[in-house]
Design goal:
mainly alpha; 2 domains
Length: 434
């Protein structure tokens, strides 16, 4: 039944996506983040729905009569440079076959990221994208929060198998980044029942994040919670929400969870933590020895034997920063960090220029919550290798588009005002003539 439902939804919306490319982007985002086909049990689990929808969306972009203009902001330029550099590092990669295979996956993600500003051209479409992403991942937040409460935190919250968010750490990071987006929608919502539902979804998603039993997510949630409170325009509500979530976690989580979280303080005695540190040094050594880094998928046994302080302690890198450093060298890491910094500054510009105008409050809220989500990724991502996670790039694109759309709306308002003045002056001159 699930297989049939997903198939009917996807193929039922494809005709609409052919004429409205933004619908295709919504559908692709739903498939990428929620992965509904992975929740089925039959033929749908192996159907290339995302590929079909991506091709449909690309065709729709080129055939649609809508005007299409790429906003070549400084962030878009840096992202383009970063992608070009990835092509270079893949050419010189330590393991060319593995690197080429991973590059193809990354390029597919980046194509859809670059299509986003071409089809998301106004506030309504931007909100539609945010709703799509939030509902897709919020499903797991609500489900995982209820699961954690009912099971007393005895089991980890994990994502659908065979996806970016399959593991408990990956799921925790995705949920952490989703919480501020839920808050943005909560701030904009006027319908009481939906506003209350979004508030409950936030609390449950926080609980699900903790229920993942990810130590990196706990650190990320702690830092993000403080920034979340600082940037919130209703600090009392934010305090109540965070307190409620902490209270439920304290009542629900078992002693085993506290024991696992306490190992954060004794990382020097934890085999997993020591393995990560060894992988971080390996990345550093490779970047020092090779300008282009080791290329995608460089964290292999042979690499550790040649560059690691402890050659036989082979471990996944588990850090977005050291993942980029090892795979793309210092130049790649510099471009990646520059992209993050410029996007953060864009968010700060939006907040500064929109927070005092009631008509622009939406932009200030979205930029602020986008920055909070960036903090969650930046902190929790320090312990997780998800530098190519499409949600992160979509988040950056959302912040960039917030400024682009805000400036567009301002220009339209000025144009309308000038037109009104011209019409008023013309009418006055006609009256005088008469």
């Amino acid at each position: 039944m699930r297989d049939l439902f997903v198939t009917l939804v996807v193929f039922g919306l494809i005709p609409m996506a052919l004429s409205r490319p933004y619908v295709g982007l919504y559908l692709y985002s739903w498939l990428s983040y929620m992965n509904p086909h992975r929740l089925a049990w039959g033929f749908a689990t192996s159907m290339p729905f995302a590929y079909i929808v991506a091709i449909t969306t690309i065709v729709s972009v080129f055939t649609s009569k809508e005007p299409k203009r790429m906003p070549w902001t400084r962030e878009m330029t840096v992202l383009s440079m970063y992608i070009v550099w990835m092509l270079v590092t893949t050419y010189f990669a330590l393991y060319s076959n593995l690197a080429s295979e991973q590059l193809l996956k990354v390029i597919k993600i980046q194509i859809m990221i670059f299509l986003t500003p071409l089809v998301i051209t106004n506030r309504q479409r931007l909100n539609g994208l945010i709703w799509t992403i939030t509902l897709s991942l919020g499903f797991y937040g609500i489900k995982g929060g209820i699961f954690t409460i009912l099971k007393g935190g005895a089991f980890r919250v994990q994502g659908p198998p065979g996806t970016f968010i399959a593991g408990n750490n990956e799921m925790a990071l995705a949920l952490l980044m989703t919480i501020p987006l839920i808050r943005y929608l909560h701030l904009q919502e006027t319908r009481k029942w939906l506003k209350q539902g979004l508030g409950a979804a936030m609390v449950l998603t926080i609980i699900a994040t903790i229920g993942s039993q990810s130590r990196g997510a706990l650190v990320g949630a702690t830092v993000m919670g403080f920034i979340f409170w600082m940037k919130s325009r209703n600090k009392f509500f934010t305090s109540v929400m965070i307190t409620a979530a902490i209270g439920i976690v304290a009542l629900v989580m078992p002693q085993e969870w506290y024991d696992r979280m306490s190992t954060i303080q004794t990382y020097d005695q934890d085999a997993s933590a020591l393995g990560r540190i060894n992988a971080w040094w390996t990345a550093w050594n490779v970047a020092n020895a090779r300008v282009t880094g080791g290329g995608f998928e460089m964290f292999q046994y042979q690499t550790f034997h040649a560059y690691a302080p402890e050659p036989f302690r082979v471990h996944d890198v588990h850090s977005v920063y050291f993942e980029v450093l090892g795979e793309h060298g210092f130049i790649g890491l510099g471009l990646w960090l520059l992209l993050v910094l410029l996007t953060w500054r864009t968010g700060s510009w939006v907040i500064k220029n929109a927070k005092r105008d009631p008509g622009k409050k939406w932009a200030a809220d979205l930029a602020a919550m986008g920055q909070v989500s960036m903090v969650g990724f930046g902190v929790a991502g320090a312990f997780l290798g998800l530098s190519n996670f499409d949600l992160f790039y979509h988040l950056l694109m959302i912040i960039i588009l917030t400024k682009v759309i805000l400036l567009k709306e301002e220009a339209q308002a000025i144009s309308a005002l000038n037109l009104s003045k011209v019409e008023t002056q013309t009418n006055s001159e006609l009256t005088t003539t008469r």
